[in-house]
Amino acid sequence: MAAPANSTTFSGDVWAELRLADARDVPHIHSLIHQMAEFELLTDLFAATEELLTSTLFPSPTPPPFTSFTALILDLSPSPVVPDSSSTIASRRFDLSASPLADPEAAAFASPRGGGRVTAGFVICFPNYSTFLSKPGLYVEDIFVRAPWRRRGLGRMMLSAVAGRAAEIGMGRVEWCVLDWNKNAIDFYEGMGADVLPQWRICRLTGAALDKYKGNQEEAADGKAAA
Amino acid sequence: MAAPANSTTFSGDVWAELRLADARDVPHIHSLIHQMAEFELLTDLFAATEELLTSTLFPSPTPPPFTSFTALILDLSPSPVVPDSSSTIASRRFDLSASPLADPEAAAFASPRGGGRVTAGFVICFPNYSTFLSKPGLYVEDIFVRAPWRRRGLGRMMLSAVAGRAAEIGMGRVEWCVLDWNKNAIDFYEGMGADVLPQWRICRLTGAALDKYKGNQEEAADGKAAA
N or C end of chain A: which has fewer CB within 10 A? Predict the structure, then answer.
């Protein structure tokens, strides 16, 4: 398959780095979230803005990683990554010589870190809590790789690195959600050792259904109402 | 139905208070979590200890409520509750005169707040994050009422109060999980305006399957492995 005219082709060795994101990554994070919404057939729920992402993911001061909302970026580099202890979560060489890769969005997703790096994916995670374990865990809200970079082991690298970090800081479990029709994802997650829990369903209160509870405290505090 | 010999019977007016928990509530929280595990037929997963609950729910300093792991206690009082702005989330009078209530565990669950109060339930919640909204939400990990106090409107009071607080502080949604066989709970939640999402499944990596990812970073960072 020939690469589209505007594609950048990656071949031979490339170096992947999973690193902490910062506010400079927000435009790419915003675009990646939109691509994810398209993939999940959920664009009707997409309401992200760059302003909200910046203020909610990168408040000042930003809490230490994995203690609150944490955004990670996957960059691919044409030259070896020098790990930065303050931001590198994992790095790894990938050999693409057997199967070069054309990325038609490479220019649009140029990494703010420069050096010919391309942003190919992201992770959003935050601590959750298990009362049964009485320990924090890590909830992976999103893990996403742009289409040209899929099926190269990058998703496995990202989830492995996040799980490793969670285990190392004493978290009791790592959890995330999958759509029940996404058999590829389910097979992949089970292959990584995860259980897909059949019995639990997510309940969600949002929009107008949530807003109607505003001011509930005033109503509740005046002593009226019965059993 | 006659009350058991050691029961405390509540009749006439009682006052419910949903309040922030503190470390003095840990023994009751621990017992309530165990009762919840029994109800969910999940005692094999119960590994909570009072020591772990104290260190994980009430670290020093404890973050502001609803910004991290947050424990709330439901106390029932034989006398009117004077709301405390630093800890009361909601309070309400309940009229039990039409249907007095026998609590065989009232002595064991005497509230550390004194005044004849009895602890009847708890909530554990923490912020989660929606990338589609690019806003925090509130995840309710547990909401539990001891058996004698159920079907009196207390669960509704607790969830309404928590949802109200989440909406007031600008959170975009409130979420929790339900077992698909718990039809009573599903009907109750839908009656409160929640959607039960049919398609999402929870994936979980825990125990030995999680521990094997420890040290993954070293393996990943040495440059070996291929696509």
Answer: N
Which among B69, B211, B227 has CB closest to A167? B211
* Within a domain: A12: yes
Reported confidence tier of residue A6, pLDDT bands at 50, 70, 90: confident
In a domain, B226, yes or no: no
Residue B220 has pLDDT above 60, yes or no: no
How far is Cα B200 from Cα B178, in angstroms, rounded to an integer?
12
Model pLDDT, residue A41: 87
H runs (alpha helix) in B40-174: 50-57, 154-168
Answer yes or no: is pLDDT of A216 > 60: yes
Note if the bond before B61 is cis, omega within 30 degrees: yes
- Give the phi and the psi of residue B150 in degrees, each rounded to 5: -75, 165
Please give the Cα distance from A43 to A28 (Å, whole number). Answer: 17
Cβ separation of A139 and B128 shorter than 8 Å? yes
Provide the whole-model pTM.
0.91
Give the pLDDT confidence score for residue B181 in this predicted structure: 93
The label of the residue with tokens 């490339």 reads: A14
Annotated active-site residue A189? The verdict is yes
- How many domains, in total, are found in chain B? 1
Residue A168 structural domain: 6-210
| B219 domain-assigned | no
DSSP string, A92-116: EEEE-TTS-EEETTTTTTB-TT-TT
Report the CATH number that the domain containing residue B202 is assigned in CATH. Answer: 3.40.630.30
Asked whether residue B160 is assigned to any structural domain, the reply reads yes
Report d(CA B204, CA B59) in Å as an integer: 26
Picking from A124, A201, A211, the nearest residue to B197 by CB comes out as A201
Cβ contacts from A onto B, under 8 A? 306
Taking only the tens place, the pLDDT of each residue in A119-149 is 999 999 999 999 999 999 999 999 999 999 9
If pLDDT is split at 50, 70 and 90, which confidence band does B226 have?
very low
